[in-house]
């Protein structure tokens, strides 16, 4: 196990290995966001991931991911995922909506917006 702060999972440009677990679908406002938890196989951090896209809107696909605590991971529900992501000091975001495959968002940059 590697406890380095510089694990590849923190860098949007790098790939890491994940143990993925689906949390479910967030049907709030009919957005059908796919929520999952991914545990990094190297550093064991848990990431909360949210993906949504809107049929009929091209380039609407977007995803957000942020590190959450074990406790948050245990408690999160599809309906609370977007709020939890938005409460984090930073996150990684990407998708066709943003036109890139992943960047680090801090503060208002790439803020978590999951509605069309
Ligand atoms: Zn990692």
Using the CA coordinates, give the radius of gyration: 14 Å
The 3D shape can be described as globular
- The count of helical stretches stands at 2
Q: What's the mean pLDDT score?
A: 90
Bound molecules: zinc ion
Order of helices and strands: EEEEHHEE
> Uncertain runs with pLDDT below 50, 5 residues or more?
none
Q: Please state roughly what percent of the residues sit in beta strands, choosing from under 5%, 5-15%, 15-25%, 25-35%, 35-45% or over 45%.
A: 35-45%
> What order do the strands of the largest sheet run in, or round the barrel if closed?
1-2-3-4-5-6
Q: Give the helix proportion (percent range).
A: 10-25%
Q: How many separate domains?
A: 1
Structural class: mainly beta
Determine the N-to-C terminus distance: 40 Å
Task: Give a count of the beta strands, DSSP E runs of length 2 or more.
Answer: 6
Tell me the major beta sheet.
6 strands, antiparallel
Characterization of the model:
The chain is mostly beta strands and about 120 residues long. The chain has one domain. Helix content is about 10%, strand content about 40%. It contains 2 helices and 6 strands, in the order E-E-E-E-H-H-E-E. It has helices spanning about 70-75, 80-85, and strands spanning about 20-25, 35-40, 45-50, 60-70, 90-95, 100-105. The chain has a 6-stranded antiparallel beta sheet with strand order 1-2-3-4-5-6. Strand 2 (about 35-40) and strand 3 (about 45-50) form a beta hairpin. The longest helix has 6 residues, at about 70-75. The chain is globular. The mean pLDDT is about 90. The site of zinc ion has 7 residues, from loops. The site of zinc ion (ZN) has 7 residues, from loops.
């Amino acid at each position: 196990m590697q406890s380095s702060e510089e694990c590849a999972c923190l860098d949007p440009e790098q790939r890491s290995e994940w143990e993925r677990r689906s949390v479910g679908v967030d049907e709030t406002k009919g957005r059908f966001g796919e929520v999952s938890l991914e545990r990094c196989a190297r550093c064991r951090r848990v990431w909360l991931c949210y993906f949504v896209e809107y049929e009929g809107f091209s380039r609407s696909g977007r995803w957000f991911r942020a590190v959450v605590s074990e406790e948050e991971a245990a408690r999160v529900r599809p309906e609370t995922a977007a709020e939890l992501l938005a409460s984090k000091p930073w996150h990684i975001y990407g998708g066709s909506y943003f036109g890139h495959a992943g960047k680090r968002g801090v503060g208002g940059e790439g803020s978590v917006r999951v509605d069309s």
